[in-house]
Each structure stands twice: as structure tokens, then as C-alpha cells.
Amino acid sequence: MFELDINYQRMMWELMTRLFPIHRSILGPGYKESLKIIKEYLPIKTLEYKTGTKCGSWKIPKEWNLTEAYIEDMNGKKLINYSESSNLQVCQRSIAFKGIVSKNELFKHLYWKEDIDDDAIPASISYYKPNWGFSVSKRQMRKLNGDKFKVVIKSNFYDGFLRIGEFLIEGDSSKEIIIDSYLCHPSLANDNLSGVVVAVALMDLIYKMSQRKYSYRLILTPETIGPIVYFHQNPNFKKNVIGGITLVCVGDSNPNYYFRKSRPGDTLVDKAVLHSLRHSGYNFTVENFSVSTGTSGNEKAYNSLGIEIPVSSFRRSTIGSYKEHLTSKDDLDFVKKECLFDSLKILYNAILAIENEAIYKHTYIGEPFLTGLGIYPEVKKAEDRIAWDFIIAFSDGKNSLIDIAEKAGIFIDKFFIPIKKLTEKKQLVKINTNKD
Fold first, then answer.
1. Which domains does the chain have, with CATH numbers?
2. pLDDT at position 367, please?
3. How far is residue 327's CA from residue 305's CA, in Å, rounded to a whole number?
4. Rounded distance, CA 230 to CA 205, Å?
5. What is the pTM of this model?
6. Does residue 160 sit in helix, strand or coil?
């Protein structure tokens, strides 16, 4: 397998630390600012779709901005103060509110979780149903003593745009592969800034390839609504897509990777990622396509009926499987720069498998005499002959190179020299399967 420049590890961590403090939501200034920063690392375009635009049964909502939020006791002491705590402290897209409320009324607008650490603040969301509220830790809850409290939330909604970051890298073919991640979560490092920074680094590696067989499109969206809007506003792009992958929760230290296949389950991307995982040295779990609530990301929207774009999901931990998930503990201490780098290596090797996938047809009748052809391999141990033996045995015009590599139990790069020498001696002919 191919190694990567360690500078990519540093680049991803730098981008992570710059994006983490920003208060993002599905629409708003934080999302816009995040795309602007990413553009310093990759020449993405920012696509804008107006508030009120209908996309199937969805309609693009207004942008949201939060400037101040706090809870005071009746002596003026601030008990909860958004500006001094986590971006998760206020419910996402909370409406504005100012008033004196009873303890009972206040608690109707507080969100907390019992099964997390005392000082962890959970994320809460009210994207499409107007409400006001705070997310609080159990420690903060215990400080809310008294009968009445002053509550202030300064937020506003306004007509604006849903924004999507896009970067298309054209290859020799217009056949296209999607690299996707969502960017809408506020200050959550693993879910899902980890996916964003790995996707950016992966696209930079693809961009720097001297030659590309396929085209690659990076799409950074608000979760769920983003792919739906993108499809309805760009319906023709689907015809060229042969596969894709969404990246989520790829920065934690879980030693076991998870790969959820696309709806069809047998795309070139599905095959290549699985091939890379098998030779990564990591344990991994393969899942068939699923839409179970709480376990799915953007792949659910891409594969939904009527859209049906075959996007798979690559994760280091399953969504919702770790106690830090969707809490303030999903921070820069929870993700590890070396784990981001490992994820990038697996994905880059999958891209290299995609780019080198091909079908070869033999011209020989019976096993070719390699010594007579002057291409007998230098053999120091039996493993040195594996690639030669398998490419000679299975190049029947039906098995692809990944298929043969899987039969041999070795990574696809081990076949490059045998294929080069056998094609030079006209023992193999490459079959063109990449016609537009």
C-alpha cells in the first residue's frame, strides 16, 4: 500500500483547529465562514440556494444567527452564559426570547442527558420547529436553584442562502465519484469536522495526481437537506455518478473501522474501499445499506428513492456509539491527528485502487513461458510470485484487477509490475471499460 506525506497530518489538524470554534448550523454566518476557511486549502466553489426554494417536499429555511444567550437568577448572577461556554449551550436555531420564567417553565426548555459526564453539554436541535431552549450539563442543572429566572436569547432569522461547498476535479472520463461530508454541526470535532478535514485532504491528493481516469466531486453540505437541495438544483449531475462515499466520525481512536455499503452494494467505490480496508492492518466491520434512525448520515439522503445516488459511508466509530457523541466532549482532545491520518491513508489507497482498476484479457494459450519471454520475476521468496501467478491465471476478460487481487489476498499495487511487463510482451490486453 502507498504511504503519504506526513504534512497532510499537520494540514488536517490545522484546519480542524481553525474550524472547531466556529458556531455552525445548517444555514448561517458560521457555515459561510467555515467554507471561506476551507477555500484557503482547496479551491472550492460556494453554491448558494435562496431561502424559500422548494426542493421536492423540502423548502430551504431562513438563515439563523445567535449573538447572545444567558440565564440569570433574580439577583443578576449569570448561571448559564453562552458566550463563556460551548457552542452547544443554546439549542440549534432557537428563536429569540426574553422574559422572567418560573423554574417549571424553564425546565421545559432545557435539554440534558443522564448518561453522560457531569460537565458534558449535549447537542440539541430544533431545525424545522420553532422553539427556544438551552442545552445544559448535569452540573449546570444542579446550579439552577430558585423559583424564577431571567432568560435572554438574542437570535434572528432572515432570508438568505443554503450554502454548499463544491470542488470538481475532472479526469479522462466524465464518470464521477462523490466525496461527501456534512459541515453543519457546531464545535463537534469527530461528528463531523473529522470527515470534512479528511475529505479536503483526500481531494487535495487527488488534485495533485498527474493523471486521473475518473472525475471526482467534493460536496460539503448541511446534513440531509444539503444532498436533497443539491440534487433538485442539479438533477443532471446524477447521470455521471458511478459511486461515492460520505465521511463521518473518522478521527477518534477506535481500532475498528466501519464501512456501510451503498444501496446497490457493489459499486466500484464499494469494492475499492473494502479492498483497501482488508490490507490496512485494521479490524473493520462491513454493513449493508441501512436507514436506521440515529445511525445514518448523508448516505441516507443520497440513496433515498427518487435520488438513488449510490453513496456509501466510511466511519471509524458508528454514529451514536460513543458517549462523547453529540456532546461538548466531542472536542479537540477526543480526536487524534494520527487517527485522522490513518483514515486518510485508507481512503487514498482506495482511490488508487479505483484509478488502477481494469480488466485484462490474455492472448496466450496455456501458461506463458516467462523465462523465454525474458520477464521471469526475481524471486527471493514464494510471495514474490503471487501477483504473477494470479494475474496469469485469472486474466480472462471477466475478472477485474481488484477481483484478482482479492483472490490473491494482496493489495492491487503488487500487480503493477507484472501487468506492465506482460502487456509489453503482448501477453495481456487491457479491455476498455471506461467509455463515456
1. 7-61+163-356 (3.40.630.10), 63-158 (3.50.30.90), 359-431 (1.10.10.10)
2. 94
3. 32
4. 25
5. 0.95
6. coil
